[in-house]
Amino acid sequence: MTPEEIVAVDRAHVWHPYAPMPARSDPYVVESAAGVRLRLADGRELVDGMSSWWAAIHGYRHPVLDAAVTDQLGRMSHVMFGGLTHGPAVELARSLVEITPPGLEHVFLCDSGSVGVEVAVKMALQYQRGRGRPERHRLATWRGGYHGDTFHPMSVCDPVGGMHALWTGVLPRQIFADLPPSGFDAPVDEAYAASLVDAVERHAHELAAVIVEPVVQGAGGMRFHNPAYLRLLREVTAAHDIVLIFDEIATGFGRTGALFAAGHAGVTPDVMCLGKALTGGYLSLAATLCTPAVAAGISATGVLAHGPTFMGNPVACAVANASIGLLKAGNWPGEVSRVRAGLSAGLAPLRGAPGVADVRVLGAIGVVQLDHDVDMAAATAAAVAHGVWLRPFRDLIYTMPPYVTDDEDLARICTAIAAAAAAG
């Protein structure tokens, strides 16, 4: 198909994320990708400032990851996980237990991040039933979060910025504390801390779990918070036998400067959700880990009634093992620190610029928040004109580049963000 034919068929038949049918604008046609660059069908090359929605941390066509996929395809592409097992899945489970916070010993492999959150919620509900407390069936979180697009995850996304209005009367009604105060290094707000603990304690009799994105709230607003609030949640949930779930789908595997964001707080949740960068951006795969106590509570009710067809897919597990191997063997902390320094320097001039409300950087995450909603088409076009792919949303123009992005390309990304902010 020619690029023009691809766009025409796409417009007629293909539904894209968060878009109507037909879409309001035509997508850019990508022909190939290598390193940190996307090559468009018209010959232009764009530095990928998004890591393909935060997943491609090693860039594209990495020889180690390519080899892992090719080798596994030569053995088997898939086999059902019910009653069978295989080396790539077992090796992945062992690696995840080794590198995640201590105490997370059991691994459930699933298809996507949203499904991983569904599994986490199911684990929490079933745990409470196993403990003889079926009345504990609600979830608590704080505002500003995002946990996926399926129904239970949607119910704990931000009630204003999420999709609650569309699904009023359908979504379960959950408990929402106020937004955590902004700022990774900001002092703890004692009044907020007390209100957060109070919100959990007042509803402890009906709560199965508390679920939050640790340190960084991603698609709900790209906000950073002090890790001390995670320690508070760990203390209050442990005191009331409420399952604490950390959704590390966006933050896991080094993005925030710690291998997992929970490490900033020095705590272990009862359940942790992983995805996105798990396979280095090659294939869809997620994992939900839990403690032995949670597993025992679930098993008291029988089985965990969940089993995706492609659970533990060998190819996905093989490339996940290779991606984790790259992190272990390489200097990911140095790479993330270098990206942070490049973004900090490149975005600093935007502080105080017309239309800019805030500029913030944490780990390999750079965010420019405007004082108005972004004109997405104009901002995207401005970034593309500067040779960079960005995906703004709401009032945010942000980047989560691959860790291997060099200093020159980091500067290019920052220039494109400035152009997008001016255009949007």
From TrEMBL:
The record marks Y18 as: Participates in the substrate recognition with KAPA and in a stacking interaction with the adenine ring of SAM. Its main location: cytoplasm. CDD domains: OAT_like (cd00610). Pathway: Cofactor biosynthesis; biotin biosynthesis; 7,8-diaminononanoate from 8-amino-7-oxononanoate (SAM route): step 1/1. The modification N6-(pyridoxal phosphate)lysine is found at K276. It is found in: Cytoplasm. Pfam families: Aminotran_3. It is an enzyme of class 2 (transferase). It comes from the Bacteria. The keyword Metal-binding does not apply. Homodimer. This is Adenosylmethionine-8-amino-7-oxononanoate aminotransferase. The lineage of its organism: Bacteria, Bacillati, Actinomycetota, Actinomycetes, Micromonosporales. The gene is bioA.
